[in-house]
């Protein structure tokens, strides 16, 4: 019996373990951290052997194949030992793809992928498709393959998930953009990160489609290096030669298999970044065969994504906006670009090799105060101290919201758009956003 070892027992790892067990493998799960109770119960219900708080080498290095959770870096000590033994390492997505014939709609990008993924899923689900939501959001793809029977999966893929995919293929691949992010995981080399994102096109054939932002300078350069066989489906903010999705005279247009258009003001999502997200989603839904009437409906009634420019409340004339999902500088740029009020901006967290110069002009134009929320704010001070804008340092969300409220004036906005990962002070970006919303409620 082939032995599969899973490293990491959160959503992707536990799901991969269940699928491996269902398919008859000898399965062992190992996690260096404590395993959450719900995942322990899931593993136990399938009689899957697991350990937590350690990696036992003799139980891992005898594997025929290892499924690595995306959060584990390639240079982790156990990963290096597995590589020394020449044991194949794959992702949960790669493993799950072996056991389903469902159509795979896969979305990646430095920014916008969660909103675009959620919007595509919303359109397909509302149109009556038998569709699952997986990857970085939703339930584990492997667990759904083990327990469900969907015809389509809409999958958000991070660069970490793409790194360990080899034979997996997207029927429709969507690349929103490529801007600096996670450089600490890629030896601080941008090209390594770019190469990871471009893996979304891997194994695509003439029967498949590749949807991408035509105006992204990095993507444009990378496309010159690749022999992509899939149908190219570029989109742009403007009507340009070759693009099949664009806006002209305030009309949102998709020239796909079933061309359609709608007034731009009918789109549920506002802001330039959401225009790109809506274009990508509209093209993808059209390629998937959704009727233009259903696409228009889905694009006009989508409620948005939690922690992404989410209204967190208004207190005495001050608006609070939760953009905790903005874990890189480019995401913050789009958030600031959409602000129409004087803004107190919250920055900080675990820096990933950020270059803050991208937002300098917008900070100077729109910000009346900066609050740095992090364990180490030295890089932020080096970037912004000479702007002449009031600055405060805090190490808790309550102090952060209190400081912001002091800086804000009626008619202004407090924007949590941190540019950084959350792991220095919070469990994750969701925890950061939830604490922000709770503190606003308590003002």
Tag the structure with descriptive keywords.
UDP-N-acetylmuramoyl-L-alanine:D-glutamate ligase, Protein-Tyrosine Phosphatase, Chain A, Rossmann fold, six-stranded parallel beta sheet, 20 strands, six-stranded mixed beta sheet, 35% helix, 3 domains, globular, 443 residues, alpha/beta, 21% strand
How are the SSEs placed, and which strands pair?
Layout: E1 3-7, H1 11-22, E2 26-31, H2 37-45, E3 49-52, H3 57-60, E4 65-68, H4 77-84, E5 89-90, H5 92-97, E6 103-108, H6 113-126, E7 131-135, H7 141-147, E8 152-156, H8 159-163, E9 172-175, H9 190-198, E10 209-213, H10 217-223, E11 231-235, E12 245-248, E13 251-254, E14 260-263, H11 272-287, H12 292-301, E15 310-315, E16 318-322, H13 329-337, E17 343-347, H14 360-366, E18 367-373, H15 378-384, E19 391-394, H16 397-407, E20 413-416, H17 429-441
Parallel strand pairs: 1-2, 1-4, 2-3, 4-5, 6-8, 6-9, 7-8, 9-10, 10-11, 16-20, 17-18, 17-20, 18-19
Antiparallel strand pairs: 12-13, 13-14, 15-16
Helix pairs in contact: 1-2, 1-7, 6-11, 6-12, 11-12, 16-17
User: Based on the structure given, which CATH architecture of the largest domain is correct?
Assistant: 3-Layer(aba) Sandwich
Strand order of the largest sheet: 7-8-6-9-10-11
- Per DSSP, the total helix count is 17
Overall geometry:
globular
Q: How would you sum up the major sheet? A: 6 strands, parallel
Kindly report how far apart the N and C termini lie: 60 Å
The fraction of residues in strands falls at 15-25%
What is the domain total for the residues?
A: 3
**Category from helices, strands and their pairing:** alpha/beta
CATH C-level category of the largest domain: Alpha Beta
């Amino acid at each position: 019996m082939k032995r599969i070892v899973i490293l990491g027992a959160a959503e992707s790892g536990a799901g991969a373990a269940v699928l491996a067990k269902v398919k008859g493998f000898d399965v062992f799960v190992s996690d260096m951290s404590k395993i959450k109770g719900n995942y322990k119960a899931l593993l136990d219900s399938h009689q899957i052997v697991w350990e937590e708080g350690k990696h036992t080498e003799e139980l891992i290095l005898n594997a025929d194949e290892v499924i690595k959770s995306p959060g584990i870096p390639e240079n982790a000590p156990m990963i290096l030992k597995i590589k020394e033994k020449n044991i194949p390492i794959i992702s949960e997505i790669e493993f799950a793809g072996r056991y389903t014939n469902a159509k795979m709609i896969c979305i990646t990008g430095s920014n916008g992928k969660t909103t675009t993924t959620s919007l595509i899923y919303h359109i397909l689900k509302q149109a009556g498709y038998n569709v699952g939501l997986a990857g970085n959001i939703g339930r584990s793809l492997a667990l759904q393959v083990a327990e469900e029977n969907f015809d389509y999966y809409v999958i958000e893929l991070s660069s970490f998930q793409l790194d360990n995919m080899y034979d997996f293929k997207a029927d429709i691949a969507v690349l929103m953009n490529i801007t600096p992010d996670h450089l600490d995981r890629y030896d601080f080399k941008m090209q390594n990160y770019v190469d990871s994102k471009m893996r979304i096109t891997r194994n695509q054939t003439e029967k498949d489609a590749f949807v991408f932002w035509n105006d992204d300078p990095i993507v444009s350069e990378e496309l010159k290096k690749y022999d992509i066989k899939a149908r190219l489906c570029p989109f742009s903010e403007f009507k340009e030669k070759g693009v099949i999705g664009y806006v002209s005279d305030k009309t949102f247009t998709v020239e796909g298999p079933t061309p359609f258009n709608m007034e731009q003001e009918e789109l549920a999502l506002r802001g330039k970044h959401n225009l790109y997200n809506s274009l990508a989603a509209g093209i993808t839904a059209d390629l998937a065969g959704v009727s233009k009437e259903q696409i228009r409906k889905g694009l006009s009634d989508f409620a948005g994504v939690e922690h992404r420019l989410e209204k967190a409340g208004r207190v005495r004339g001050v608006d609070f906006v939760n953009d905790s999902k903005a874990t890189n500088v480019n995401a913050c740029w789009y958030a600031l670009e959409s602000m129409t009020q004087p803004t107190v901006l919250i920055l900080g967290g675990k820096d990933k090799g950020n270059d803050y110069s991208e937002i300098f002009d917008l900070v100077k134009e729109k910000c009346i105060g900066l609050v740095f929320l992090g364990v180490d704010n030295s890089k932020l001070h080096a970037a912004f101290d000479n702007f002449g804008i009031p600055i405060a340092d805090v190490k808790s969300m309550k102090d952060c919201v209190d400081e912001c409220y002091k800086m804000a004036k009626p008619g202004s906005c407090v924007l949590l758009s941190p540019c950084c990962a959350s792991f220095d002070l919070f469990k994750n970006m969701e925890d950061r956003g939830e604490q922000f919303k709770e503190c606003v409620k308590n003002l």
